[in-house]
Inverse folding.
């Protein structure tokens, strides 16, 4: 797989500092699993964090801090409560399509209609229920309605591909969009399966946008 | 009774790695005491700068040191510097801490595999020192935005408000600072 599009430095920096929201973090991790270049960039940013930590002036600890930690060294770590098994709908994916391993603990909903040739499946992160994450499937040669984003969108192509005004995207590629980009992704001949996360909401352009603003809250689009 | 006062001056990267490997291999409490002396006060300072309360910063520092003890045997000195390794532990704890405050069960970080590639691994040993030099090479303004990115969890908009600058200026300043860091580190994008 030859990856052409990567998350930008801002995004990887925020990932490294822990400042990226849980949904965008999940999609970034899924990309990093298959992209050594981005793992290296994140390692470099984490090293910035390490250097900043190392040169902090020492703050005064509680007088008993060391004794407290020392007394806990032999303590057995509290067993984490067994996580509930995630609820994952059968998405009827092609047998050779594996979802990213970062989705293993997430709830995955069934496909829902989102326009002609477009289905989405809501993904729920147990550790961040508010995160706006979804799988998106666009049929061959179908286009997503033109839209912009309130803040930030990351889309990782899992299978197939699409093109829009910003370029062509194939498996492993990460597409990044924000309020400055009005785009209309157009799936290629194979169709497209992606994992997307939003910060803020997606804004449809034109008359559909008016309906979205009116009906969105009822359709779970926000 | 062990005390964490056995040395003078901060630990350099090589000494940190040596001590952490000792902790991992032999559960050496004296080595742990020296790492505690170095890192715990810096961890607390790091979190205090992120605007958490004194109590929370103290707790995060102590919890990080406890995890350092428990995870020490998984530390590989050829993969990352100790300070970087400690930073990632404390960053994840801070995220968990914020989630717990909202009543959410934290995520299992163990599943995350973000180990760098083989090319980077060989560089890790010397990276800490080079990074220090690179940070020193930033302009004061650039350093400020990079620090704020690490010390605050607010996105760029928050940093813009804090510095009373337009969002675009903050974004481009961060971008320039990252490019400069890359130059100084001699790595290509």
């Amino acid at each position: 797989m030859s990856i052409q599009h990567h998350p930008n430095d801002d995004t990887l920096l925020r990932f490294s500092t822990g400042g990226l929201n849980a949904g965008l973090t999940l999609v970034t991790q899924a990309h990093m699993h298959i992209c050594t270049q981005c793992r290296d960039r994140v390692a470099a940013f984490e090293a910035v964090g390490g250097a900043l930590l190392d040169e902090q002036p020492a703050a005064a600890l509680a007088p008993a801090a060391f004794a407290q930690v020392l007394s806990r060294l032999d303590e057995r770590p509290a067993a984490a409560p067994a996580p509930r098994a995630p609820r994952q709908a059968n998405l009827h994916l092609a047998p050779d399509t594996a979802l990213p391993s970062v989705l293993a603990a997430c709830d995955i909903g069934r496909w829902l209609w989102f326009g002609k040739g477009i289905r989405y499946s809501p993904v729920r992160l147990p550790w961040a229920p508010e995160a706006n994450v979804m799988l998106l499937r666009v049929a061959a040669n179908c286009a997503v309605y033109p839209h912009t984003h309130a803040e930030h969108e990351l889309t990782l192509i899992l299978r197939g591909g699409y093109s829009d005004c910003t370029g062509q995207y194939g498996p492993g590629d990460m597409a990044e969009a924000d309020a400055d980009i009005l785009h209309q992704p157009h799936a290629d001949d194979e169709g497209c399966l992606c994992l997307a996360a939003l910060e803020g909401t997606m804004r449809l352009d034109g008359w559909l946008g008016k309906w979205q603003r009116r009906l969105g809250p009822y359709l779970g689009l926000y | 009774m062990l005390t964490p006062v056995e040395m003078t001056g901060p630990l350099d990267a090589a000494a940190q790695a040596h001590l952490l490997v000792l902790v991992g291999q032999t559960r050496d409490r004296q080595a742990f005491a020296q790492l505690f002396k170095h890192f715990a006060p810096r961890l607390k300072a790091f979190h205090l700068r992120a605007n958490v309360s004194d109590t929370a910063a103290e707790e995060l520092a102590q919890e990080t040191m406890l995890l350092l003890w428990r995870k020490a045997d998984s530390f590989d000195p050829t993969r990352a510097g100790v300070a970087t390794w400690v930073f990632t532990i404390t960053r994840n704890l801070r995220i968990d801490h914020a989630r717990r405050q909202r009543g959410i069960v934290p995520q299992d970080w163990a599943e995350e595999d973000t180990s760098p590639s083989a090319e980077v691994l060989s560089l890790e040993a010397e990276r800490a020192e080079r990074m220090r030099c690179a940070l020193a090479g930033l302009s004061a303004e650039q350093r400020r935005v990079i620090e704020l990115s690490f010390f605050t969890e607010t996105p760029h908009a928050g940093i813009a408000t804090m510095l009373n600058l337009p969002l675009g200026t903050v974004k481009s300043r961060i971008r320039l600072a990252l490019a400069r860091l890359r130059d100084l580190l001699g790595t290509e994008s």
Summary: The helical segments of chain B are 13-26, 29-49, 54-71, 82-101, 118-136, 140-151, 156-163, 167-185. Chain B is about 70% helix and 0% strand. Chain B has a mean pLDDT of 83.
